[in-house]
Amino acid sequence: MLIQRAAIAIVQVLGLAVWFSMSAVVPSLRQEWGISAGAAVWLTASVQLGFVTGAIGATVLNLADRVRPHRLLAVSAATGAVITLVLGLFVDGLAAAIPLRFLTGVALAGVYPVGMKLMASWSESRNRGRALGVLIGALTLGSALPHVFGRLPWREVLVTAAAIAFLGALVAFLVVRPGPFVTATTAQLNPRYALQMFRERKPRLVNLGYYGHMWELYALWTWLPTFLLSANAKAGLTVFLTMGVAGFVGCLIGGWAADRFGRAPAAVGALTVSGLCCLFSPLAHGSALLVAFCAVWGASVIADSGVFSASLSEVADPRYVGTALTALTAIGFGLTVVSIQLVPLFAEAVTWRYAFLLLVPGPVIGALAMLRTRSP
């Protein structure tokens, strides 16, 4: 059981290395390709849109519940690796980069939600929060990993990310298998299950809480380097430490709190801290405590992600847990496209010092939704 959990987490770290691989090299690409900040946004936004498209398709087809999940995980990670390799070796402009990044997102829709189902399948309810906290922590490390190689030429960064993702595909194919605690038999095709899920009160509230969380999360991850640079602070390794390392620690704490105190209190606590970080970000901008502040923010903003996954896996129809988790992420990542696009527009109006105030409503709405799950 422990070996399987570790293997699934390792696949997340490795397989998701391609997600922010382009974001890590945007400064180099803007100079080499002569593109504006607005155009560069699409190097991340296209991945989010691809993920949403892939997740919607997988939800309608119930892929995570009708296909052996470890095989779907392996194929998806390998596909993301190949697309990123092609981009790194042969592409010289946005016209080709954006469609390839979109396809990368489609492939990643078979990595993240499927990994959540597999981790849940190896976790009893009493320790599922911690297990999914580890998984989301792995996702955080994997997403931040390209920033470690950000000083390399941009093509080498992409090739390195592709090689790492392909290694993740091998681990998924050779080691990972489904566990006994989530239904492993193939479900019947039910394209309407995602809509049926929203008719039930607790799944609906968990989804709403997750959407508030996602409004903040990826906009922060995407624009934190720019926020730091605008405050004359170093990005690169700082982003990896505050987003990746601190985020991983936050996921472990969030998972532990979810099992110890309950799903709703853990989620509300994390959302409250990250919401306060949004609110006080103008004060931290340019201060001597900026890196420490970002570490707290990086830990809290992701600490509740595994909590939402654990919650939904427990209140959704057991036959369609994979579909429920995929639908959750499909809509959540769709929202990230909006917030990622709006933050730089807001920054143009108010400067980057105040840009993250736009994210405050997300954690507020998420916390209110999760508080309501505690009542019958």
Explain what this protein looks like in three dimensions.
With 376 residues, the protein is mainly alpha-helical. The protein has one domain (2-179, 190-372): MFS general substrate transporter like domains (Growth Hormone, Chain: A, Up-down Bundle). Helix content is 76%, strand content 0%. The chain has 17 helices and no strands. It has helices spanning 2-15, 26-33, 37-61, 63-66, 69-90, 94-108, 112-121, 128-144, 154-174, 193-197, 201-230, 237-261, 263-284, 290-303, 305-315, 321-350, 361-372. Helix 7 runs antiparallel to helix 8. It is globular.
Tally the helices. 17
| Main sheet properties | none
Structural class: mainly alpha
Mean pLDDT over the residues: 89
Q: Can you identify the CATH class?
A: Mainly Alpha
CATH homology superfamily name: MFS general substrate transporter like domains
Note the overall shape: globular
> Span between N and C termini?
34 Å
What share of the residues lie within helices?
Answer: over 70%
Instruction: Classify the beta-strand content into a percent band.
Output: under 5%
Count of the separate structural domains: 1
The number of distinct β-strands equals: 0
Q: From the alpha-carbon coordinates, what is the Rg to the nearest angstrom?
A: 19 Å
Give start-end ranges of low-pLDDT stretches: none
Task: Give a short overview.
The protein has 376 residues and is an all-alpha fold.
Summarize the topology.
Layout: H1 2-15, H2 26-33, H3 37-61, H4 63-66, H5 69-90, H6 94-108, H7 112-121, H8 128-144, H9 154-174, H10 193-197, H11 201-230, H12 237-261, H13 263-284, H14 290-303, H15 305-315, H16 321-350, H17 361-372
